[in-house]
Design goal:
rod-shaped
Length: 106
């Protein structure tokens, strides 16, 4: 599903959040998110996801990075395609084996 926010907006919000954390280090994360929401109008949960993703991509937090998730997704698609091709080859092999048996019987 396409995002309704462009990557520039996401990067700006993440930057604003980090700037807010530097300005008010004793402030809770939720309060920082709420302050950025006041400035941008973007929901807190949406921003939280962007910040978490940025932290994972930067190696600051454990988890699969965006590049790793894309690679896993690509490999899953490739695996499914190979399984389909393998099934087609098995069916074709059985068909030709049966045809060869019929030919040998005649």
């Amino acid at each position: 599903m396409p995002s309704k926010y462009d990557s520039e907006t996401k990067e700006r919000v993440v930057r604003l959040f980090h700037e807010r954390r530097e300005q008010a280090p004793t402030e809770s994360f939720l309060a920082s998110f709420r302050r950025v929401r006041e400035l941008t109008g973007i929901p807190v949960d949406t921003m939280r996801g962007w910040v978490t993703k940025a932290q994972i991509d930067a190696g600051e937090r454990p988890g699969a990075s965006t590049a790793e998730r894309d690679e896993i997704r690509r490999l899953k698609r490739e695996n499914a395609e190979l399984r389909r091709a393998n099934e087609i080859l098995k069916t074709a092999s059985a068909f030709f084996a049966a045809a060869e048996l019929d030919r040998q019987r005649q």
